[in-house]
């Protein structure tokens, strides 16, 4: 019986990883297409940063907490499936956008749909598997970032090259002739329908209330009072502030650099869209997957050996590697740049899964949807919102020479990563204390909370 339960749990992890990969396909396809969009709408780099940054995360800020409350009460697979349909439709609208304003609004819609998948997934994985298996499970889930990004880069780069050779796609009834970048958006939206359907095929895991106790009734749960949520979070404030704040700063650096990598390779080394998409795509999937797998395995092994802060140790190792390898932006030729990029992407692929596992490990089951929502709001508003915009602004106003983009990207790493390392180093003891508090947390039928 235990083997059946475990297989179902890992099947759930697999479906959620696929869904996460599709969300990153739709999110990342814009990264590949920034240069043709810039030329088509005559945009500045700052406007491109806005499009991929705050233009994506605004609805995370507005809808994140309500979605978190829904995740803690209602059927999570349905919430995630509805989100997948939303971002799929909005990605298609991106491909049909007649101007920058419509494109920006459509990207807001993509962000609104994707705001559901993180809280729902972290909550379900947290209930499906015990605490010591979560770093490995969430590192597998984090592989969706590399898989989806690689799908966007490889398939998108190839398709764009083919379409460019044929001058785009002829107009359809009621639709004008489409540029190659617009067709890529339309094709990229198709896997989203598969993701929405697959989510409805998984079983909703019983909610783990405390320790190994669970509620398998399937009914909508009475919400934990916000006052009780705040009481618990205040008591463990240092651990939450460190994990959420440190992860947000980490995403600011990683996403800020990652957004501009294809544009950097095209501008600096004169590579084609297909060359960049295919090569960077394979680097992303190979390095990213191996980095995520390594982090999850290291954290799980160390956890079984009683290192209660194993997730944070894995994050610190990743940050050190990212810092050393970010000099790939200074490479004199494309071959050297790709080699350095492969090392950077390995370490860049390590932290997210173990950061998410660390959040789950200090959060009682009935609060995971809400705390995961706060986590995703922060990393998206701070990291995704500011990172790409900051690099674009630095390139427009500080490093204005022809190869200034490389210095903007490197500056973000040099300034940001030491700060992130300091944050995670300082909270290790408080993190262990917060794990113990989460293990002791109890929920009562009245919705009251004691710790």
What does this protein structure show overall?
The protein is mainly alpha-helical and 451 residues long. The chain has a single domain (2-203, 223-442), classed as MFS general substrate transporter like domains (Growth Hormone, Chain: A, Up-down Bundle), CATH 1.20.1250. Helices cover 77% and strands 2% of the residues. It contains 19 helices and 4 strands. The chain has helices at residues 2-32, 34-41, 45-52, 54-71, 76-96, 100-114, 117-128, 134-165, 180-188, 191-199, 226-235, 237-269, 273-304, 310-325, 334-348, 351-361, 368-397, 404-426, 428-440; strands spanning 207-210, 213-215, 442-443, 449-450. A two-stranded antiparallel ribbon has the order 1-2. A two-stranded antiparallel sheet has the order 3-4. β1 and β2 form a beta hairpin. α5 packs antiparallel against α6, α5 (76-96) packs antiparallel against α9 and α12 (237-269) packs antiparallel against α18 (404-426). The chain is globular and about 60 Å long. The two termini are 32 Å apart. Residues 210-218 and 442-451 have low confidence and may be disordered.
């Amino acid at each position: 019986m235990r083997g059946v339960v475990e297989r179902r749990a890992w099947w759930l992890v697999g479906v959620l990883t696929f869904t996460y990969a599709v969300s990153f396909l739709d999110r990342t396809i814009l990264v590949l297409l920034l240069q043709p969009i810039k030329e088509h709408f005559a945009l500045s780099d700052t406007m491109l940063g806005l499009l991929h940054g705050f233009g994506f995360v605004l609805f995370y800020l507005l809808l994140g907490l309500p979605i978190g409350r829904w995740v803690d009460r209602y059927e999570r697979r349905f919430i995630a499936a509805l989100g997948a349909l939303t971002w799929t439709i909005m990605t298609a609208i991106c491909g049909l956008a007649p101007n920058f304003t419509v494109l920006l609004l459509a990207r807001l819609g993509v962000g609104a749909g994707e705001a559901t998948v993180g809280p729902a997934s972290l909550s379900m994985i947290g209930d499906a598997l015990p605490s010591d298996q979560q770093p490995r499970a969430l590192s597998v889930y984090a592989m969706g970032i590399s898989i989806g990004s690689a799908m966007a880069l490889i398939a998108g780069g190839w398709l764009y090259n083919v379409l460019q050779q044929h001058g785009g796609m002829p107009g359809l009834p009621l639709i004008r002739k489409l540029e190659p970048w617009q067709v890529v958006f339309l094709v990229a939206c198709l896997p989203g329908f598969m993701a929405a359907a697959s989510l409805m095929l998984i079983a909703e895991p019983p909610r783990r209330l405390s320790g190994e106790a669970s509620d398998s009734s399937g009914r909508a749960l009475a919400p934990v009072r916000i006052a009780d949520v705040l009481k618990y979070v205040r008591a463990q404030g240092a651990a939450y502030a460190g994990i959420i704040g440190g992860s947000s700063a980490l995403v600011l650096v990683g996403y800020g650099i990652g957004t501009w990598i294809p544009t950097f390779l095209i501008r600096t080394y004169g590579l084609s869209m297909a060359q960049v998409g295919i090569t960077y795509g394979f680097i992303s999937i190979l390095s990213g997957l191996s980095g995520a797998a390594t982090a999850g395995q290291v954290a799980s092994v160390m956890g079984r050996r009683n290192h209660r802060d194993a997730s944070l140790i894995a994050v610190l190792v990743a940050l050190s590697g990212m810092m050393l390898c970010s000099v790939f932006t200074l490479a004199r030729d494309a071959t050297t740049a790709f080699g350095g990029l492969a090392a950077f992407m390995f370490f860049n692929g390590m932290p997210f899964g173990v950061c998410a596992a660390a959040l789950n490990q200090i959060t009682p089951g009935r609060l995971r949807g809400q705390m995961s929502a706060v986590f995703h709001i922060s990393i998206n508003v701070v990291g995704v919102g500011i990172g790409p915009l900051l690099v674009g602004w630095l390139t427009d106003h500080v490093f204005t020479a022809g190869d200034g983009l490389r210095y903007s990207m490197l500056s973000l790493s040099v300034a940001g990563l030491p700060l992130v390392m300091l944050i995670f180093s300082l909270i290790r003891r408080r993190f262990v204390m917060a794990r113990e508090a989460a293990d002791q947390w109890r929920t009562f039928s009245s919705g009251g909370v004691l710790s």
